[in-house]
Design goal:
It is built from eleven helices and ten strands. It is α/β, with parallel strands linked by helices and about 280 residues long. The protein folds into two domains: about 60 residues; about 200 residues, Rossmann fold, CATH 3.40.50.150. Helix 1 runs parallel beside helix 3. It is globular.
């Protein structure tokens, strides 16, 4: 670790009681470079001196480490696998009338969770009977969670949503689209830190046993040892016949750390091997 980075980490920890050492060093350095440009600092030392005396800048720097970018139906291959294969397998293994449980970990503003809710609603309609499901969406950003709870998105945010889904699951007002109440009530948003050592799953969910755990574009920002801890927690939260869904950039991390098996080579969907005798 270089001296500049070490100094930044120390200032954030001792002055503002915020531990940023958990993040990947290259990720922190990229954030530092962006903040230097914003405030006009010519180097890391100058930025560090400014940071030490400016709590507002500490808040901005810390906030820049929380990636809240998300999209509806972000990976078309993954969502196709969920729709055509995974959900039907889950339903086949569930006792009739039981609830499908899903955890969207690092959910940002809820696009991922609502995408899943739309798919399950459509599958339920196609089967001609109600499929009970509950989605627990968690993030450490209270601002992102507030946006997810509100369920209001601009025109750019819904560009991956099919027209039929837009008309059915959103109400349009001007250039904004709002998730209908019937879909919003299927998603439970709550604050949760994946590195919390005292819990195995989100407290709001009461217990784990999730049929699907989705964690995309989260792992890559943490140090390798913490990536392993998070992956272990995610897998332990799965049911015996559960599935772990990740991002393409994190596919190898999951394959190397978790006892899972890729269901199809092009996808980032993995089935749980623990308890299956695989």
């Amino acid at each position: 670790m270089n001296k500049e980075l070490s100094k930044i980490i120390t200032v954030m920890k001792l002055t503002y009681e915020r531990d940023i050492s958990i993040y990947d060093e290259a990720f922190i350095m990229n954030a530092l470079e962006r903040r230097c440009i914003v405030i006009g600092a010519i180097n890391a030392d100058q930025y560090c001196n400014f940071l030490e005396k400016n709590k507002n800048e500490a808040d901005h720097f810390f906030g820049s480490l929380h990636i809240t970018f998300s999209q509806f139906f972000r990976d078309s291959i993954t969502f196709a696998a969920l729709e055509q294969n995974v959900f039907h397998n889950i339903i086949a293994h569930k006792p009739e009338g039981s609830e499908i449980r899903i955890w969207s970990a690092g959910c940002s503003s809820g696009q991922e969770a609502y995408s899943i809710a739309m798919l399950l609603s459509e599958i339920s309609e196609a089967r001609g009977h109600q499929i009970r499901f509950r989605i627990f969406a968690t993030d450490i950003s209270k601002e992102a969670l507030a946006d997810g709870i509100a369920g209001v998105y601009d025109q750019h945010a819904v560009q991956n949503v099919k027209l039929k889904q837009l008309n059915k699951y959103f109400t349009k007002q001007g250039n904004t689209y709002t998730i209908i109440p019937e879909l919003r009530q299927c998603v439970n948003f709550s604050t949760y830190d994946l590195l919390d050592p005292s819990t195995a799953n989100p407290p709001e969910s009461i217990y784990g046993d999730f049929d699907i755990v989705i964690c995309c574009n989260v792992l890559i920002y943490y140090k390798p040892n913490l990536q392993q801890l998070i992956i272990k927690k995610l897998q332990q939260a799965l049911s015996t016949f559960g599935y772990l869904v990740t991002d393409e950039s994190e596919k190898m991390l999951v394959q190397n750390c978790a006892k899972v098996q890729n269901i199809e080579i092009p996808t980032t969907v993995f089935e749980n091997k623990i308890g299956r005798g695989v």
